[in-house]
From TrEMBL:
Keyword Amino-acid biosynthesis found: no
Protein name, UniProt field: NADH:flavin oxidoreductase/NADH oxidase family protein
Keywords, sorted A to Z: Flavoprotein, Oxidoreductase
Taxon lineage: Bacteria, Bacillati, Actinomycetota, Actinomycetes, Bifidobacteriales
Family annotation (PANTHER family): BINDING OXIDOREDUCTASE, PUTATIVE (AFU_ORTHOLOGUE AFUA_2G08260)-RELATED
CDD domains noted in UniProt: OYE_like_2_FMN
Keyword field contains Oxidoreductase: yes
Pfam families in the cross-refs: Oxidored_FMN
């Protein structure tokens, strides 16, 4: 295959509303690297991992969850940024992630009630009430946030963004999806407040808008701000009221309303996703077979908003070959190709597609312990642990190894995180 046959849209630069230019359309979406220790500090391993991805040719690298409060973590191994104590290491991470002309954006987040009880027995949320669904037993019932606490969290988001910019990251992504705190405010199922942060959609979206405005004030008008937003709270794997999302949850119509208002506020990119803890995006560990069944995620929603938004969109999930990427870009349903799990196995995938003209398919393996009942019992935990192991290998200067089995990945996670490894976590590796 020659370079002449490479889908050239993928290689084209993209200029964001703030004026920043991205060299190509590969958008490495967030995965929890799980490389931080108990001090929640970034490490040299983060720098080595992101240097490898930057050299691999992606236009944008989005970090895994960086929490704005070290007492409120979403997963084991999260980095937390509250002050400048880790500024030197953050600078090393940002410097590595921006090699080869790449952008490196810090994803900033707060888990709200979606913080496993093994990590945090005292979570906070817009309203009280336990987590629904099969994972509910793994989470403590949260305390409702006061107005003062809400304002403190808004300040924390802005402060983390300020520090990210000072450290040399070239953008931030505000995580408002996947059942974390901002998504909880947006959802009428989670948010039952009666003050200015609850009730109508305008009130439920106020927290996100306040966070966005505070972050914009902290970083200035020329610094990229992306927002990761659910198309709806409906899971892909369960077809429940598909037109409007999970019954009573954040709907597609509401999502479009929020996107339009983020566009008016000056957001630079919207990263489309979906699902929550109690309604997760993926519920199997079948690898390539699962990808074949599903194809590229959220395409119907992306087509729906195509004529309604002018802000660039990143469509994340299910891209496994250059043909699908080229088609999505050519149709104009997305301006960035969001990829995560394939880059844990093929870190230089962008170079292979753009530079070498590779048109193959990244087939993700089926991850199994070898015992059906255990595969079912550990499910998503097994998948997350397996991809965390691959990232850990890259961070230690080793090559990914698709032959590694599920049991080895599970034991690795237990060694790294202790009992917390066996509790469900938001599936960062669904892309």
């Amino acid at each position: 295959m020659t370079n002449d046959s490479v889908p050239m849209v993928i290689a084209e630069p993209l200029t964001l509303p703030c004026g920043a230019t991205i060299k190509n359309r590969f958008y490495k979406s967030a995965m929890n690297e799980a490389l931080a220790g108990r001090d929640c500090a970034p490490t040299e391993a983060h720098a080595r991992l992101y240097r490898t991805w930057a050299q691999g040719g992606a236009g944008v690298l989005v970090t895994g969850n960086v929490m704005v409060d070290h007492t409120q973590l979403g997963e084991p191994g999260n980095v937390a940024v509250e002050d400048e104590r880790d500024l030197a290491m953050l600078r090393r991470w940002a410097e590595a992630g921006t090699e080869n002309g790449a952008h490196c954006w810090m994803q900033i987040n707060h888990p709200g009630r979606q913080s496993p009880i093994t990590i945090n027995p005292h979570p906070f949320a817009p309203s009280g009430g336990a987590v629904d669904g099969e994972y509910g037993r793994f989470f403590a019932e949260p305390t409702e946030l006061t107005r003062e606490q809400i304002h403190d969290i808004i300040r924390r988001f802005a402060n983390a963004a300020r520090i990210a910019k000072k450290a040399g990251f070239t953008g931030v992504e505000i995580h408002a999806a996947h059942g974390y705190l901002i998504n909880q405010f947006l959802s009428p199922l989670d948010n039952r407040r009666t003050d200015e942060y609850g009730g109508s959609l305008e009130n439920r979206a106020r927290f996100l808008f306040d966070v966005f405005d505070a972050v914009r004030e902290a970083v200035g008008p020329k610094f990229p701000i992306a927002v990761k937003l659910n198309s709806s709270d409906v899971p892909i794997a369960i077809k429940i009221n598909e037109q409007n999302g999970a019954p009573g949850g954040f709907s597609k119509e509401e999502s479009i309303w929020v996107m339009k208002r983020l566009e008016a506020r000056g957001v630079d990119l919207i990263d489309i996703s979906g699902g929550t803890y109690s309604k997760p995006v993926i519920q199997t560990n079948d690898g390539a077979a699962e990808d074949l069944r599903r194809g590229v995620y959220f395409t119907d929603f992306a087509r729906r908003i195509k004529g309604e938004l002018t802000v660039p969109v990143a469509l994340t999930g299910g891209f496994r070959n250059a043909d699908d990427m080229d088609q999505a870009l050519s149709e104009g349903i997305t301006q960035m190709i969001g990829i995560a799990r394939p880059l844990a196995l093929v870190p230089d995938l962008p170079n292979r597609v753009i530079r070498d003209g590779w048109r193959g398919n990244v087939d993700l393996p089926r991850i199994s312990i070898g015992i059906k009942s255990l595969d079912k019992a550990f499910g998503g935990i097994l998948v997350i642990s397996w991809f965390e192991l691959q990232m850990n290998r890259i961070a230690r200067g080793r090559r990914p190894d698709s032959r590694i089995g599920g049991m080895r990945a599970l034991l690795f996670a237990i060694r790294q995180h202790g009992p917390a490894a066996l509790t469900p976590r938001r599936r960062k590796g669904h892309q």
